Amino acid sequence: MVPIPAPALRSADPAGRDDGRPGVRDRLAVPVLAFGGILMAVMQTVVVPLLPDLPRLTGASAGTVSWMVTATLLAGAVLTPVLGRAGDMYGKRRVLLAALGLMTLGSLLCALSSDITVLITARALSGAAASVVPLSISILRDELPPERTGSAVALMSSTVGIGAALGLPLAALVIQYANWHTMFWVTTCLGAFGLLLAWWAVRESPVRAPGRFDVLGALGLAVALICLLLGVSQGGEWGWGSPRIVGLFVACVLVLALWCRQQLRVEQPLVDLRLASRPRVALPHLTALLVGFGFYANSLVTAQLVQAPKATGYGLGLSIVGSGLCLLPGGVTMLLFSPVSARISAARGPRVTLALGAAVLALGYAVRIADSRDLWMVVVGASIVATGTTLAYSALPTLILRAVPAGQTASANGVNVLMRTIGQAVCSAAVAAVLVHHTSLLGGVPVPTLHGYLVAFAMAGGVALVACAAALAIPGDGGSGGLGRVQRETTVPHDEALEGA
Fold it and tell me: Quick one: pLDDT at residue 400?
């Protein structure tokens, strides 16, 4: 492989000025990329408060309407590793702008139509935005000097939680006081603004991994992921033992086996499985899946619990807006703790930060189990979970960047984000199964019991502890130095990077 120019040499003067000082656009690149990450998370969550009313508004069944969420999940899972690899090959800025453009187009179609087929298609287009965060992290690694990369990557990782915390109350407010199409007009304007900002402020990275795109590998991965996530997301509705669900899981295993064989034989694979199987890469991917599971339970359960009627004995009877505002302090917490995460990683290493984040996640669920009746304790527990998520999510990209060659940063981070998505999908199915199993009748209508919610918290906390153990098992963390070491080693050929992994 041809050695790749070290980003540190370029970052000394990212604006290309003779005096070595960055221009206005370069100084705004980090906040612009962070804004794009927040937009991505907002786009994914704004439709959630609308779901109960969509059958009436569109004339479609509740099962059909649920595909507005499922389509986004599937498209994001499939496109994240594919667009990450495309970014490594053809230019990260170019692919980033394409992802933001598809996200904005999807929002515009939702604003213009009430036809459920168009809405589901539009939400699938918006799913392309899931690749914004791994692409942005790779751009930051390529463009920034080592002393700035750690904090910038931590902020970028936190945007997922920040955007989710902002999206729910924003959507609820718009839906409550305006026509539902207004919400998508707002997100379309925000998406167009973010796209223009990225086009203006973000420069194309010179770091590439040239070669032929693995089309067969992309198709194989897409089929396997669709079978897996469709089975997980629809298992509760179709029946876990139904022929459709069993067939999807069997097809997933068979296609995945064939895909792995093809990836090991092709010269330029979509996902370098030999590199991905090394403990320094595989264990962060596993931990990402577990943390994704642990984090998502907080969002799923909190909204349902605080909206439950007071007659249940534990519910607070809050509105959709009120439940969204309960998660808002967690978003603020994530914003405040992202620089703290970077400092811990610089002093102790990202492995320690990741393990600490998973432990804090478990602590947050312990607080939720101790008291989920008082509003202030619900907010405190949710904010602790958000803090742990920030620490963990901020450390994961740093671990990946330190373990892979410069030419594979976007695709490797794309796989890491994919693992978070799979963890969230599995969490959604597991929480739904727990709550369905623990119900009582209220006015003739089955509602989850408080015990069911506590079981869901205990399950998520237990998974977080497993994530902590997996993080501590990650080898090769040198302790301090942040990303300085990986920035200096970007001229190492791919084969040598494999040996070092």
Answer: 92
Q: What is the DSSP string of 416-451?
A: HHHHHHHHHHHHHHHHHHHHHHSEEEETTEEEE-HH
For tokens 């970077």, the residue is: 342
pLDDT score of 175 more than 90: no
Quick one: which of 103, 92, 95, 101 has its CA closest to 40?
Answer: 103
What tens digit of pLDDT does each residue of 430-439 get? 888 888 888 8
Q: How many CB atoms neighbour CB 264 within 10 A? A: 12
Residue 359 has what DSSP assignment? H
| Of 139-148, 163-172, 477-486, the least confident | 477-486
Question: Which of 76, 414, 125 shows the shortest CA–CA distance to 229?
Answer: 76
Helix axes 350-370, 320-348, angle to 10 degrees: 150
Between CA 468 and CA 424 the distance in angstroms is 17
Closest CA to 166 of 327, 379, 388, 403: 327
184's CB contacts (< 8 A; 6+ apart) are 46, 107, 108, 110, 111
Judge contact between 393 and 163, C-beta under 8 A: no
Per-residue pLDDT for 1 more than 70? Answer: no
List, in sequence order, every residue forming a beta bridge with 447; answer none if it has no partner.
440
**Torsions phi, psi of 274, nearest 5?**
-65, -40
Structure tokens at 196: 């223009």
Residues in the chain: 501
424: confidence class by pLDDT, cuts 50, 70, 90: confident
Who's near 242: CB < 8 A, 6+ residues apart?
none
User: 401-411: string of b/e by CB count within 10 Å (b at 16+)?
Assistant: bbbbbbbbbbb
Q: What are phi and psi of 440, to 5 degrees?
A: -140, 160
Least confident of 3-17, 69-83, 378-392: 3-17
The structure tokens listed for 453 are 């919610």
* Separation of alpha carbons 261 and 270, rounded Å: 12
State pLDDT tens for residues 337-386. Answer: 888 888 898 899 999 999 999 999 999 999 999 988 888 999 999 999 99
pLDDT band at 2 (very low <50, low <70, confident <90, very high): very low
The alpha carbon dihedral of 436, 299, 129, 79 has a sign of: negative
- The residue assigned the tokens 């312990």 is 366
User: Which single residue is written with the structure tokens 């089955």?
Assistant: 446
